[in-house]
User: What shape does this take?
Amino acid sequence: TRSGLHLLSAFPAVTARLDRVRRARGVAAASVCLVLVAGCSPAPGGAGPSSSASTSPTASTTTPELDLTKPGVARTLIRELVAASGSQQVVMVLIRKREASVSVLTDGRAHTWAYRGGAIKEVSSDLAYVGQSTFDPDDFNLSDIGAVFRAAAAVSGSDASQELQIVDSRRVEHAASELKLSVATNPETRTVFFNADGTLVPTLDFNTAAGIAIGLSDAIGTHSTATTVAVGSATGASIDYPGTDGSVVVRMRASKLPVTDVPRSGADKLIGFDPRVVSPAVIWRVLQRYAAQGSFGPTTTWSVTADIRTGDTLPRLRFAIGSAQFVTDLQGDEVKQ
Assistant: This one.
């Protein structure tokens, strides 16, 4: 267990039992007092893999039931669960008010350890490891789950059966540095996302300069080659780039979601270019020209696509603002096609 507050240190008898349990791992289950606990359940409305757990003949320890929304409690319990699992390769964390679990890799397979009804034990799980990123839970701000739940409720409008999840649900790009916290409810409402430091992933308004700039930056990420860059009031910001298997990957930042990536079949016949040459300031300047004419406002539907087509050597910006359609160069000056 890491240094700092030890969750079970306030309960000496419990701590002694946990030590005996850990020494007993590998001994016949009949020699240990088993505690039946409820299993992991799918995250309501969650985007990533879920655990559906039942009891397993694995040693457990019972503690007074904890309120994981109290400051410091969830973080320390997660450390206890990771320590009990014997693995540092964490692939999923789930936290509710009175329950929590971690799924870890052991010999290339996912195993889940859960805290249910005051008991810590290994449970059965249907979580399959398919290349998800592993991560260190200490890299995420789990110091006050109650505050995270309250912030999520303010956005979603519900605090019913809230569940926090950390898991890599990306289909193409698997990077621990891009993992987010998500909070869902049951009944399902809007899933709310947080950065690793506990700050909200902002909802973007793509009819503002800031929304365009942040969305485009998020969509591009660290990529230096793309065949298409697109921004739109209804769709958000995205890039298309060549996948390693000959597919095309669409990397998108939508208004209410963090970055997602979706592969599509078929090679892209367009020419690649550095997506960073597409300036959000230029896009906004063009939109403001139309605002001066009364053709652009807070509710206007618009889009722009940057690509290199036949006869071009540099990307062109292809705008659609309301009913108007036109093409500009990278500086925002209109050109004939």
